[in-house]
Design brief:
Structural class: alpha+beta
Shape: globular
CATH class of the largest domain: Alpha Beta
Strand content: 25-35%
Radius of gyration: 22 Å
Distance between the termini: 39 Å
CATH superfamily of the largest domain: Nucleoside Triphosphate Pyrophosphohydrolase
């Protein structure tokens, strides 16, 4: 999955510091990210930006420390409109999913999560004053009323609904992502994750489930989520009633027809493959029982 970058490790502890010459800079415009694409994606270095600003007689933009991955440090940079640096361009965030290496994809998603938080929390929601960044932690604080604002993380479930050797696979309505997915949805106020599983399945496909089992979690910075993966079983045979506002398709797929996963990023795809491999083992036992 996107966070599986061992032996490298993401260190998200905030530090109040300036970038060094070799620090990576991540910059965003709407739903685009500034990078150099190729066999391996890379980001602008602070030293490169200093050279460009010197040639063009520009002030260096503000840079905010984000995190480190291994020995590399990443900062958020507010680049100017129509920034032109040879080899670099603005790319859709969605396109990052198919890029490599994986640690740079994780950096993009996590930085995007933090970029959205900084962008949307410039003023205090309690009294309206401009927020300032804490020097000690990743937190914005109001100098007037002392309100504290921490990064928003939205819990959501990914649900693998199974029926024997089949799993319920879906496709989203009106989204860029067109491949197979699983039932998914946000946890509501006052609701457990297991209750979210039941509700989302009922709302999106009109089915009832049982034997809800937690599988694994995943940070998903593309949408500011913490994803919680669950498997469950169809309670009894029912017809699918599709919520067409959420989904364009929902169908039962035999484990033998589950496609491979070329990205290796998402909890959704991993759950599909886990189900496929479990069913393969079961079928092998049925075909070759011990005598």
């Amino acid at each position: 999955m996107i966070q599986d970058i061992a032996p490298l490790q993401l260190n998200n502890v905030y530090r109040n510091k300036m970038p060094s010459e070799n620090s990576y800079l991540l910059a965003f415009r709407e739903n685009r990210i500034f990078l150099k694409a190729g066999e391996e994606m890379t980001y602008l270095r602070y030293g490169e930006l200093k050279s460009v600003c010197g040639r063009e007689s520009r002030e260096l933009p503000e840079c905010t420390y984000l995190f480190s991955i291994g020995t590399e440090e990443y900062f958020l940079a507010d680049l100017w409109e129509n920034c032109e640096i040879p080899g670099f361009d603005w790319h859709k965030m969605f396109a990052v999913r198919t890029m490599r290496p994986k640690e740079k994809v994780l950096a993009a998603a996590t930085a995007w999560h933090l970029y959205g938080w900084y962008r949307d929390n410039r003023f205090c929601g309690r009294c309206g004053e401009k927020l300032v960044h804490s020097a000690e932690m990743r937190m914005l604080q109001c100098p007037c009323c002392s309100n504290q604002v921490f990064p928003k993380i939205a819990p959501a479930v990914i649900v693998g609904v199974t029926d024997g050797r089949k799993i319920l696979m879906t496709k989203y309505a009106n989204r860029e992502y067109k491949r197979y997915a699983l039932i998914a949805g946000f946890t509501e106020i006052g609701e457990t994750a297991e209750e979210t599983v039941k509700r989302e399945v009922e709302e999106e496909v009109g089915l009832h489930v049982k034997n809800i089992r937690y599988y694994k979690s995943q940070p998903w910075g593309f949408d500011s989520n913490l994803l919680l993966g669950y498997f469950c079983e169809l309670e009894e045979p029912e017809a699918i009633h599709l919520d067409k506002n959420e989904l364009s398709l929902a169908e039962w797929v035999d484990y033998t027809e589950i496609p491979d996963d070329p990205e290796g990023l998402s909890l959704t795809r991993e759950m599909m493959l886990v189900f496929r491999e479990e069913q393969k083992k079961k079928q092998k036992t049925i075909d070759s029982p011990n005598i």
